[in-house]
Amino acid sequence: MSDDEEPPLKKNKLPVEEPTLIPSLPEELILSILARVSRLSYRSLSLVCKRFHSLLTSGEIYRFRSLSGYTENCLYVCLRFSHTGLSHRWFMLREKNKSSGYVLAPIPISHSPSLHGSSIVAVGSKIYKIGGVMDGSSVSILDCWSHRWLEAPSMQMERDRPSANLIDGKIYVTGGCHRGSYNPSKWMEVFDLKTETWEPVLCRSDRLTFESYHERTNNLLVDGKLYIFWSDKGVVYNPKDDTWDSLEVPEMDMCLTLFYCCVIENVLYDFFYEELDIKWYDTKARTWRSLLNGMRELHKFVRHASVTLADYGGKMVMFWDKFVASGDGLGFHKTMMWCAMIALERSDSGEIWGKVEWFGPVLPNQIPLEYAFEYVGSVKV
Q1: Distance (Å, whole) CA 349 – CA 221
Q2: CB count in 10 Å sphere of residue 362
Q3: Among 124, 129, 166, 130, which residue's Cα sits nearest to residue 145?
Q4: Residue 325: which residues within 8 A CB-CB, separation 6 or more?
Q5: Are residues 374 and 115 in contact, defined by beta-carbon separation less than 8 angstroms?
Q6: Nearest to residue 71, comparing CAs of 79, 63, 80?
Q7: CA neighbours within 13 Å on the CB side: how many for 193?
Q8: What is the DSSP letter of 323?
Q9: What are phi and psi of 62, to 5 degrees?
Q10: Alpha-carbon distance 146 to 230, whole Å?
Q11: Could you tell me the residue ranges of all domains in the chain?
Q12: Whether the predicted pLDDT of 328 surpasses 90
């Protein structure tokens, strides 16, 4: 460049300001708007701008949703991929973005405790992990707002594979006590969610057996009563008047196959493998009745499959697996996870009808043959 030529002007770079979508609105009003949006859309919305990301990743938005009555049911699923219980992953059932249907979306949860041998109960926006093979008296809480694990007060007894249920703001836990001791007064204990304290629930010793004290128990809540059973025996506990009764033979029929069942709006449902049928238990007639029209479309898919049922905001979600043949033709080496969404309706005659609204695969990748459901249930967030 010669001396007569002027140097080129330097362009001053102006600071780049982040676009503000709603600049004049106060934060409380923005929270009110975002609270009305489904929680399943929060991940996408948090990418819009830093302010959205800050609001949607804080606990404030969920507190606002809870106080304003904008909570929704989200289905959480935990799958275990090892018999040791040390390898498990969490998912959330969410609608697909560009097509109809659902998918199990992975949830990044770090420092998750082992769930092997634990009982898991959902309470509002929290999931309680109770007992287990490791640290049998420990209780941990998964905060579904932040997806972080918190510690809760430990139980009075160590329990491996206990059974737990939520009744009127309290968590009742039974069975799974370690061998070497037998004390019916410690067979059940209850956790008060308000005071965060554990207390024993005294049970009449003639209602229990030595096996029930140590064995895995299962329970279900129907008509405000807790049905607890093990092997071929069981008891009924009414927490309102603190009374115990033995299970009668017709009621034991209700409890035969309840490791794959679910309770939806106070009705017990279960899948019967021999008949490939979903049935519900009529507590008045003390008998099982078929869910009308519920399995007609699914018979050919669930044969030889492992089925799990769950409540999803009043609808039934059914998961099942579909084996994938190995390339060498020497059997199966992987499985695909499928799901069906079934709407339920009770007719004037008292029958319950099921309508399959959608079904299809919910995991894009195949999973190992050795898997198990650690937890399937709805959480309000």
Answers
A1: 24
A2: 22
A3: 124
A4: 331, 332, 333
A5: yes
A6: 63
A7: 16
A8: E
A9: -75, -35
A10: 37
A11: 27-65, 109-256
A12: no
Q: What are the tokens at 339?
A: 């799901």
Give, as one character, the DSSP assignment of residue 7.
P
CATH topology of domain 109-256: Neuraminidase (2.120.10)
Quick one: CA torsion of 151, 157, 161, 165, rounded to 10 degrees? -70
Cα diameter, the chain: 110
Count of residues for the chain? 381
The pTM of the full predicted model, rounded to 2 decimals, is: 0.85
164-186 as b/e, with b when 16 or more CB fall inside 10 Å? Answer: bbbbeebbbbbbbbeeeeeebeb
Is the per-residue pLDDT at 210 higher than 60? no
Determine the pLDDT at residue 44.
Answer: 81
pLDDT digits (tens, 9 = 90+) for 87-144: 789 999 998 876 788 999 999 898 889 888 899 999 999 999 999 988 899 999 999 9
- Nearest-5° angle of CA 130, CA 315, CA 125? 40
Backbone CA torsion sign across 77, 265, 73, 320: positive
The separation between CA 1 and the C-alpha centre of its own chain, rounded to angstroms, equals: 73
Dist. CA 127–CA 308, nearest whole Å = 19
pLDDT band at 332 (very low <50, low <70, confident <90, very high): low
| Phi and psi torsions of 286, nearest 5° | 55, 55
Please tell me the predicted confidence (pLDDT) of residue 196.
97
Q: Residue 262's closest CA among 297, 234, 302, 221?
A: 221
Q: Which residue has the higher pLDDT, 266 or 128?
A: 128
Residue range 26-55, pLDDT digits in tens: 888 888 888 888 887 887 888 888 888 888
> Which three-class secondary structure state does DSSP give residue 144?
coil
